[in-house]
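Narrative of activities, Objective 1.

The group set out to show that a structural description can be obtained from nothing but a protein's sequence at a throughput compatible with the screening campaign. Below is one input-output pair from the validation batch, recorded exactly as produced.
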Amino acid sequence: MRTPSLGLVLGFWLVTNILVIVWWRLEISERWLPGVLRYFGIAIYVMVALVPPLLLFWVRKSFLNPVVLGLLISCCLALSITAHEANLLREQMQFSLDHEREFAHLGLVEGIIRPLISQIVETYVQVMGDDHLRGSTWRTHVAINYMFDSLAFLGVFALGTLLLSPTSRWLCLLTFAFYTQIAIFPGRMGAVFIAGGLFWQLFLLVSRRYPAAIISGLIISFARTDVVFASAFVLLSLPAFERRWPTTKEWAVFAVLIGISLVTPKFLIWMHPEANFKSFLVTQGDYFGKMLGNLLSMKLAIAVASPVLAIVVVTTCSMTRTIAAVVPAALVHVGIVFLIADFSETRLIIPALAALAFVASEGLGKLLEAGRCEPSQNPAAD
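Output recorded for this entry:
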């Protein structure tokens, strides 16, 4: 399977996001499913969740373009995850919207260094209607989260085309879908955005789309500087796996991305000299409070990761290109989270869990593909 072009991936992302916005803005579901039939709309999301694996099974041999099929399934999974999150958090969606919008108007440094998410929420509220009107909170929540979720799934699939075999790629995509379900944290939006930003950057860097990676990194740095910082280390880990020194271009892109991730928050804080740092305990000298809490919370992370961790231990016998591409970046990110954030929010460790999913899927895929090839190599079976 060839790697999807950047234009194809962005085309899928833009078109599906426009369709979701048009669907809710025009209230198509309200017009086509009046009265009691309106509740049938909930069943649609259940079918969306089940259709991708069934579709993959039936057309796996006859589909002419498996890349397009993978992108389509990624969008379907993203829509299913988004709808599930909105259903799960119905009572807290208003809090979720208000919480993110407040960051655009408060002096907390956490909001100052990631203004993009707040601005996106503000824009969607204006486009989809006042968030206190009946039904509009649901529409706005779905539209905003689908923007993040769809790009995350597309990034994971696109990176998988570079690193994984066909079987491993589908295993990774479906495992990532499972982890995005458990990443839903009550009252906080964009649960998949962190992993999506990291793996989108990794896709651009591993495929050597360096100008796009720099532009993307600059945009993402206004929302999450940590994923830009962590993803840059693939430019060092891949050359190390290939037993060579990074090229001048790789060193330059690495320096630019690290610089972006460090300078952007400094610049934003410089623009707001009255910033309140109380949300960053490390800056107030509480160096061990959060780390101690994270050590106690690690049992949750270990429990969630244990199935894929067991597969990684059993199937991984040597260093692979996949490991070199995803693990160092994930370790850098989880290290940042461990120092300044809260492990009890599972959404923050999804990049590390998704990296484990890549490695586990690679190993499990090889076993399944080997088992499938053995009968055809047996003359007696023929």
